[in-house]
Write a structure and sequence with these properties.
By secondary structure, the protein is α/β, with parallel strands linked by helices. Helices cover about 25% and strands about 25% of the residues. The chain has 2 domains: about 20-130 and about 255-320, FAD/NAD(P)-binding domain; about 135-250, FAD/NAD(P)-binding domain (3-Layer(bba) Sandwich). It has 7 helices and 19 strands. The strands form 5 sheets. Strands 1, 2, 5, 6, 7, 8 and 19 form a 7-stranded mixed beta sheet that branches. Strands 10-17-11-12-13 form a 5-stranded parallel beta sheet, with helices on one face. Strands 14-15-16 form a 3-stranded antiparallel beta sheet. Helix 6 (about 200-205) links the parallel strand 12 (about 185-190) and strand 13 (about 210-215). The chain starts with 18 loop residues before the first strand and ends with a helix. One of its GO terms (cellular component) is cytoplasm. InterPro entries: FAD/NAD-bd_sf, FAD/NAD-binding_dom, Ferredoxin-NADP_redctase_2, Thioredox_Rdtase.
Length: about 325
């Protein structure tokens, strides 16, 4: 286990009328759970939720592995309930984007939408992660015109069509299974000959008659001028190139942490995940990280929520030690 770096004292600046004890950046399971715990501790947290509230679960279909929901719950519904719960205890919400941070002195300063400045004694970073694109030129051009990273958002528009899903993990299989509600056929393209998904998700996909698998294959190009009409595929074993017609391509090959805003402010690993010590503490005293921004291993809603709880408790204890 790594030990926390030496905590050097911070220079301080004068208090401001807009001073907060806790500001949470991010509105997924980690951020909202942190808000619930911080609010119940009478810390009157401010949660900056960005212009797309709810994190990754807002684009997820049925969530079956979150404790307490025996029959499952839709991702957007779960996030709505968590937001309502945080608000019930006194969390204040700000729908805006944080465009700059300064953790070099306390109180910390956050710049919102390039204009407003917020001062705070502690910060909980819970900005989550974003879908990784394939990286093709036509992918960005046709995003919203047949290319998607969200089956929940766009599956309805695929009624009666043939679709491709790219990926081999739980997210990819979840997308594929959900899309079978609308599509006539879903082909899953995976660069290997085995799936990375959990056993239960593999069983569901393999026994779904609407899902077929294209193994050892990558997408070389996405076809279509105005909308997606197909994909050019390459078999990584034989090198064979083929073209497959389809009306939509759903990309589910992974995520990267949303941490670019904090570059140079807190320590990160080589993949951009924030390093934490003894729970959710970063190398900057008073700055904490929870959820997918610091978790490259588990990346589950329940583990994100758990670390959000930890971050709020860590922030509360930090404030008590300062007082």
């Amino acid at each position: 286990m790594m030990s926390a770096p030496h905590a050097f004292p911070f220079p301080t600046v004068l208090d401001s009328p807009s001073m907060r004890d806790v500001v949470i950046i991010g509105s997924g399971p980690a951020g909202l759970t942190a808000a619930i715990y911080a609010a119940r501790a009478n810390l009157a947290p401010l949660l900056i939720e960005g212009w797309q509230s709810g994190g990754q679960l807002i684009t997820t279909t049925e969530v079956e592995n979150y404790p307490g929901f025996a029959k499952g719950i839709m991702g957007p519904e779960l996030m709505k309930d968590m937001r309502t719960q945080a608000g019930r205890f006194g969390t204040e919400f700000l729908t805006a984007d944080v465009t700059a941070v300064n953790f070099a002195q306390r109180p910390f300063t956050l710049t919102v939408d390039g204009e407003q400045t917020i001062y705070t004694q502690t910060v909980i970073i819970a900005t989550g992660a974003s879908a990784i694109p394939i990286g093709l030129k036509n992918e960005s051009r046709l995003t919203g015109h047949g290319v998607s990273t969200c089956a929940t958002c766009d599956g309805f528009f695929s009624k009666g069509k043939e679709l491709l899903v790219v990926g081999g993990g739980d997210s990819a299989l979840e997308e594929a299974i959900f899309l079978t509600k609308f599509a006539t056929k879903v082909s899953l393209v995976h660069r290997r000959d085995t799936l990375r998904a959990s056993k239960i998700m593999q069983d569901r996909a393999l026994h779904n008659e609407k899902i077929s698998f294209i193994w050892n294959t990558v997408v070389e190009d996405i076809l279509g001028s105005e909308v997606v009409t197909g994909a050019r595929l390459k078999n990584v074993v034989t090198g064979k190139i083929s073209e497959v017609p389809c009306a939509g391509i759903f990309v589910a090959i992974g995520h990267r942490p949303n941490t670019s805003l904090f570059a140079g402010q807190v320590d990160m690993d080589e993949k951009g995940y924030i390093r934490t010590y003894r729970g959710t503490t970063t190398n900057v005293p008073g700055v904490f990280a929870a959820g997918d921004v610091q978790d490259s291993t588990y990346r589950q809603a329940v583990t994100a929520a758990g670390s959000g709880c930890m971050a709020a408790i860590d922030a509360e204890r930090f404030l008590e030690s300062q007082h």
